[in-house]
Write a structure and sequence with these properties.
Strands 3-2-1-4-5-6-11 form a seven-stranded parallel β-sheet, with helices on both faces. The model has no long low-confidence stretch (mean pLDDT 96). By secondary structure, it is of the alpha/beta class. It has nine helices and 14 strands. The structure holds NADP nicotinamide-adenine-dinucleotide phosphate (NAP).
Length: 276
């Protein structure tokens, strides 16, 4: 891909996090890219592109004014109420300067529906605090001029060093059991693919709602068992957790806003990447 450092100025809120940092590494060589971190850490304290930011205490506006981003990627966690207020400020900034906001949402925006996978234009509905909160921010953003927003609904994200894999490895190391949800049908994705998808969305000025799950669906228990067999030969204790008697879907599939083939992914691609 062509370098064009002047094309965009990108601010990644949560640039020190798992997904935010993967994006910083993907986009940094091509665009003027800034990030935020909350927890003090030498790597970020010594990096002039990074700003310390705590959504519960600091005003995002100051950072926005300092780096004047044409694209703001929201990849943070933190107190939900504080995040909602921060996103209100980000929206005000975007309205004033015409910036685009890329928001990392979640399949949980649909966690109240259990019988089907969800598509981009389905009405969001959640029974969880996390899902509710994501929907609230989505709705706030979707009122902006449509070309200024990309809402990315992600399923569980995996990668060789993802927190989920690290957690599973730690449980195996401590001979603890790994939880599996036999009734849960979901899709998954890979960190590396998400960062490529975001790069494409930025390069091609794409906007709207994106469902970034694998094209196939998997049962949670089967997928985690396969994943365990990829990372260890040991016999691992499993704890089956049944939240309902019937199968429950938590899957985000694309129908209207599809990305090109090379940016789509299957659950086997995710497992293959973990094998490397
Ligand atoms: N991982 C997934 O499978 C997944 C799936 C669907 C959606 N998402 C969404 O993707 C986004 C990123 O997730 P992630 O897994 O990369 O999370 P993560 O690794 O926990 O990173 C979270 C980021 O937010 C920062 N942060 C945490 N609390 C903060 C606070 N109070 N104020 C300011 N910044 C704060 C962290 O900073 P420090 O690390 O410096 O403290 C870090 O940069 C989240 O919005 C999440 O809802 C993730």
């Amino acid at each position: 891909m062509k370098k064009d450092l002047n094309k965009h100025r990108i601010l990644i809120l949560g640039g020190s996090g798992y997904i935010g940092n993967a994006m910083y590494k993907e986009l940094g060589p091509y665009f003027r890219t800034y990030g935020t971190y909350r927890t003090p850490h030498k790597e970020f304290e010594n990096n002039k592109q990074f700003f310390q930011y705590n959504v519960e205490e600091d005003d995002a506006y100051e950072i926005l004014e300092a780096c004047k981003p044409s694209i703001i990627i929201s990849a943070i966690r933190g107190d939900f109420h504080a995040q909602i207020i921060a996103h209100q400020h980000i929206v005000e900034y975007a309205l004033e300067y015409g910036s685009k906001i890329i928001f990392l949402s979640s399949a949980n925006a649909f966690d109240a529906y259990s019988k089907y996978p969800s598509y981009e234009l389905d009405k969001t509905l959640s029974h969880s605090k996390y899902g509710h909160f994501k929907i609230k921010i989505e709705n706030m953003l979707l009122r902006l001029p449509k070309k200024q927003v990309a809402v990315l609904r992600l399923p569980m994200v995996f990668g060789p060093n993802s927190p989920r894999i690290q957690e599973i490895k730690a449980l195996i190391g401590e001979k603890e059991s790994v939880e599996i949800f036999p009734n849960l049908i979901m899709n998954v994705t890979l960190d590396k693919k998400v960062t490529q998808q975001v790069h494409y969305i930025i390069n091609r000025n794409k906007y709207g709602i994106f469902h970034l799950g694998s094209t196939d669906l998997v049962h949670h228990d089967e997928f985690i068992k396969n994943l365990i067999s990829v990372i260890t030969n040991q016999n691992v204790k499993l704890k089956r957790v049944y939240t309902t008697n019937e199968d429950r879907y938590l899957a985000v599939l694309p129908k209207f806003n599809k990305l090109p083939k090379h940016l789509q992914i299957t659950s086997d691609d995710v497992l293959e990447e973990l094998q490397k």
